[in-house]
Specification:
Length: 148
Amino acid sequence: MYTVRRRVTIPLAIVAALAVTPVLAGCLGNPVEGIINGAVEKATGGDVSLGGKLPDGWPSEVPVIEGDILFGAGSSASGSEGWVVTIASKAADPLEDAKAKLIAAGFTEDANVANGQAGLVAVKNDNYGVLVAGSKDGILYTVTPITP
């Protein structure tokens, strides 16, 4: 029983720290953001942004919707690149906006699943696969290179 609790507690602690960071950063300024960015970067081996910018290496051919970037991370660990970004949006339908931008940039739709207030869109081009999960409040982009 102790082992199971420990396995769950550590990831939950990381998620809680990431969720609380934007609030703390707003109250205390950039020192907290810098400390947490550094800790997460060291733990993941990648670039992490806890607000305001896309992570280093974000592919320029992958457009994002207008809104506040809440979290961004990129990694090239083990020779595999990948990026994630969350964006809070005031758009009426952020997921549809994201899909439209990606299609306009030359991506083709692989899958589209909607369930009431949330949904998922998968698109790809010759270089990247993009999975976008969203709700009325914002979206999460996951971008991975397509290997030949």
